[in-house]
Amino acid sequence: MKKQMVWVLWIALLIAVFGGQLSAQEGPLVTRWADDVSPDHALPEYPRPSMVRDDWLNLNGLWDYALTAPDAATPESYQGDILVPFPIESYLSGVQARVNDEALWYRRTFTVPETWTDHVLLHFGAVDWEATVWLNGVELGTHRGGYDAFSFDLTDALAEDGEQELIVRVLDPTDSGAQPRGKQIRDPQSIWYTPTTGIWQTVWLEPVPDTAIHTLKLTPNLDDSHVEVIVEVAGAMDGSSLRAVVMDDETEVATAQTAEPDAGQFVLSLPIESPELWSPDSPFLYDVQIDLLDKDGGVVDTVSSYFGMRKISLERDGNDEWRLFLNGEPLFQYGLLDQGFWPDGLYTAPTDEALRYDIEATKQLGFNTIRKHVKVEPERWYYWADRLGVLVWQDMPGAFMTSVDPFSHDDASAAQFEQEMQRMVEGLYNHPSIVMWVPFNEGWGQYDTVRISDWVAELDPTRLVNNASGWTDAGAGDVLDMHAYPGPDAPPTDPDRASVLGEFGGLGLPLSGHTWQTEANWGYRDYTNAEAMLTAYTELISHLRELIEKRGLAAAIYTQTTDVEIEVNGMMTYDRDIIKMDVDAVASVNQALYEPVPQRYTFVPTSEVEGVNWLVTNEMPDASWSDVEFDDGAWVSQAGGFGFSTEPSSMVRTEWQQPQIWLRQIFTVSADEVGAYDLYLRVHHIEDAEVFLNGVSIARLPLSTTGYVELPVSDSDGTLLHIGENVLAVHAYQPSFAPPVGPLKQYIDVGLYGLERIEP
């Protein structure tokens, strides 16, 4: 309570000093964790859990700030206090001001602990976007990039004793520049949100020896049951050696030591016998300690980390469909689109507990995956994903979206994009939760897609690559991704890649008192109560299961984890106060997506991939034309699909412009197959059609479809199919009114399939 009162008084003081600047957003929406934030308690947790040293100093807290012209000199005076690491636009910063084209300056002092006698490193988790840093008047350097960590060695600029003055200047073009920025925009609207400028992740100091561990790369190899450890060292390596010890709790699993650096790196391979695997259901992690030793065997530097033994791969299942495999088994990846925005901290979660909560809620709702959407999180978010067990698709924040041309780029902006992407891939490499990289989304700034996709795969061959999520696929990478709102839908079958639904859903439900603004909020489909939303969601998941079984869909991402500003299509409200639908009900509905996929059998294939020959006539046959015994000797054999297009179309293999067409397909069924499958049709028709099986009408198809659809065939007693010869017969009509929009004016293609009946 005392901490909360200090925070409230500090906010009140700032309001008085800055003339109500904090009320730029009237009645700000805040999370319950805002009460836990104060100048002496601003994200105090260790910020780099993938490479931990015991000694460090957190510089989060109150800094001086000033806004000046972009080319102004260092300010002689500052405008007030800002709470780092919350962006200046956020409520929790204590400022809540927009920056636009100004320079944002930060200043603070600190004292180096007396025990730190070697090198001192200054670390920034992330600063958006260009940061220039001075210590005691000495310029340390400039970093460009809003999402990756960077460091400076302060040693030579440190005063001998007493306070050290640290100054940071930030320039951030937001949407007036071509740098990666995700969904930040100066005029927030629709799917574009309030920008983040300046320091938005933890700033901290760390002492290191003259010769120190600089980088650590851990690669689990499940096929050969070992983990590879690669360490880069800063400083002289003469006589140095490296020791690695893998632990399972207090039990030593493996140890190795090397004294032979390879191209400036130490490389160790440690066997992990009978490894315990990492998965969402069992996120087991091994601990590892790395010791850098001097020529006498004394420990010079020590870091600790962890890793998970897991393998992500693209393989075919029993139906010969491409699936996403985890640890050698197919696993449907079903996740939430997670944008990582907070009403009180914008890009910065108010507390570590809040950061963890979103992942916990995702798992409670029955999802096993998160697509981190056009944002890179602080490393502690990935730490919690590793610990709690969730698969992560990591987007690269979009770039090249300028007011002149939203898809423009030049050599400089392309180089910047690739530099920032490489930093993201290398910086997050050690986290087992990440299973897929997503370079581009919906064409935003997309360029050289095949090259970029191949390059990312070379940077990290242990994970999959989604070349472009949305509608701008370039035929590269491991998956073919589409978006469908509300959907669901599945991409067409690809011979070399898995089909995934990168975004769908977006069911909206605004809850009064928990929205960014009182009115004019939106979702892709709006509902007025949780019950109606749950009914609609249940229907979506039922259709999604059909796509898994019948069209080989390997993964899907539902939009989204929380409401974000005026979007109200979250599973949770923006303030995380309410999970909108019943948690247990959603988890139960989602469970159906993870059930084993039944064996699929093809009785009569469609002509989507390869033309299937049918017996055809355009002359009206007699009434028995749909029976097996009918004499079709005068009919002509032609390849499907049948239709007419005003433009060349690979779908139309036999032209059909007559008013009607009759088709027959004879196929053979064994005794084991009769009654063993739930039958369904896969059909694309323009316009009316009727389908018969052994003389029985099994589907009347009015009007048209925009593509192929699956239709169940009622055969509960298993009598439609006969042992021996069977016939699938189709009667289709030319459109009776105006033809549909588009080049394809009439069309018919039909296939008959079955899903193996699984006894409960």
Automatic annotation (TrEMBL):
<dbReference type="InterPro" id="IPR051913">
    <property type="entry name" value="GH2_Domain-Containing"/>
</dbReference>
<dbReference type="InterPro" id="IPR036156">
    <property type="entry name" value="Beta-gal/glucu_dom_sf"/>
</dbReference>
<keyword id="KW-0378">Hydrolase</keyword>
<dbReference type="InterPro" id="IPR006102">
    <property type="entry name" value="Ig-like_GH2"/>
</dbReference>
<feature type="domain" description="Glycoside hydrolase family 2 immunoglobulin-like beta-sandwich">
    <location>
        <begin position="211"/>
        <end position="310"/>
    </location>
</feature>
<dbReference type="InterPro" id="IPR013783">
    <property type="entry name" value="Ig-like_fold"/>
</dbReference>
<dbReference type="Pfam" id="PF02837">
    <property type="entry name" value="Glyco_hydro_2_N"/>
</dbReference>
<dbReference type="GO" id="GO:0004553">
    <property type="term" value="F:hydrolase activity, hydrolyzing O-glycosyl compounds"/>
</dbReference>
<keyword id="KW-0326">Glycosidase</keyword>
<dbReference type="InterPro" id="IPR008979">
    <property type="entry name" value="Galactose-bd-like_sf"/>
</dbReference>
<dbReference type="Pfam" id="PF00703">
    <property type="entry name" value="Glyco_hydro_2"/>
</dbReference>
<comment type="similarity">
    <text>Belongs to the glycosyl hydrolase 2 family.</text>
</comment>
<dbReference type="InterPro" id="IPR006104">
    <property type="entry name" value="Glyco_hydro_2_N"/>
</dbReference>
<protein>
    <submittedName>
        <fullName>Glycoside hydrolase family 2</fullName>
    </submittedName>
</protein>
<dbReference type="InterPro" id="IPR006103">
    <property type="entry name" value="Glyco_hydro_2_cat"/>
</dbReference>
<dbReference type="GO" id="GO:0005975">
    <property type="term" value="P:carbohydrate metabolic process"/>
</dbReference>
<dbReference type="Pfam" id="PF02836">
    <property type="entry name" value="Glyco_hydro_2_C"/>
</dbReference>
<dbReference type="InterPro" id="IPR017853">
    <property type="entry name" value="GH"/>
</dbReference>
<feature type="domain" description="Glycosyl hydrolases family 2 sugar binding">
    <location>
        <begin position="65"/>
        <end position="205"/>
    </location>
</feature>
<feature type="domain" description="Glycoside hydrolase family 2 catalytic">
    <location>
        <begin position="353"/>
        <end position="470"/>
    </location>
</feature>
